Amino acid sequence: MNQPSSQRVAIYLQDAHRIREGMEFAKYAEERGFEAVWQAESRLVREATVPMAAFASVTDHIKVGSGVVDCWSRNPARLAATFSTLDDLAPGRVILGIGAWWDPLAQKVGIDRSRPLKVMREIVTVVRGLLNNETVTYDGDYVHLDGVELDYVYQERAPKNVPIYIGATGMQMMELTGEIADGVVLNYLVSPGYNDQALEALDKGARKAGRSLDDIDRPQLVVCSVHEDRQTALDMARLMVTQYLGQQPHIMKASGVPQSLLDEVGNVLTWPATHEQVVEASKLVPDEIVNMLTASGTPAEARAKVKHYIDHGCTSPILYPLGDVKAMIDAFSGWDGKS
User: Fold this and answer.
1) How many helices (H) and strands (E) would you count in the chain?
2) What is the mean pLDDT of each run of 10 residues along the chain (339 residues)?
3) What domains sit in the chain, N to C, each tagged with a CATH number?
4) Are 35 and 10 in contact (CB under 8 A)?
5) CB-side neighbour CA atoms (13 Å) of 104
6) pTM above 0.85, yes or no
7) Fewer CB near the last or first residue (10 Å), C or N of the chain?
């Protein structure tokens, strides 16, 4: 996959800032040459498509992606209509990032995540068909549509240019992504070595569909804590690393975090964890774990760590800023991905 002279870089926003602040960050990222802004939808705090619309409304060319919506809580016809609407607002700039969510959160709201691979295949198939202006009849195990289309009345009927990226973590979902998706949203808080396994699975899936790994775009979420004082940057990232050690140990284990540390942190954190518990558990997390899972340190150190992810198959880092957002954007503006 050919890279431009300036490395593709994106920004990732969750719920740490007011939406109007996020709008300013999106504008600033666009001005500084960033390729995309991705909005999270992970916990029951902030839905993704409303801020996506807000970001799109104040920018002109930066892409706007969901990072990621879940595949369970929206009917696939409504999902297609939602992203068709976003494309009306920002034609050719919208990316549908979709994932299989995670327990115990999904379980707590009554969702049974059985057969996620089958469900993801069905949803991606029908949503793509609807966005391609097809009339879709589909009788699957999970998806049932009877002659459904995006039935425009006042608009010209035309396919929507909305690529579909799957937020995959496990290798079976990664293989499916290589087979059916336009791209993958690689997870954060993983080690660069984890990417090597992911690329093998993506390639295996791509070959099933007569494609190659180069046909699959591979942006990756990277927690990025930038500060002129290295220890301050590490400490800012430590709390987030601690939270994920407790909440998503399967990801942490896949990245090489020792089970003993996962057990120690798990003994301190409840679900949902309080801030006080996270602070207490963070005392157990050494600098080397923070370094392994994040791009933290001085601007030069953070860029060097992000380069490791690029060297391990990431095509565009999606930087999750901790601390001063604009300072992080400045640290990567115009970066060539080499130093």
Assistant:
1) 14, 12
2) 67 96 98 98 91 98 98 97 97 98 88 96 98 97 97 89 96 98 94 91 98 98 94 92 84 84 91 88 95 93 94 97 93 89
3) 10-227+298-332 (3.20.20.30), 229-294 (no CATH)
4) yes
5) 7
6) yes
7) C
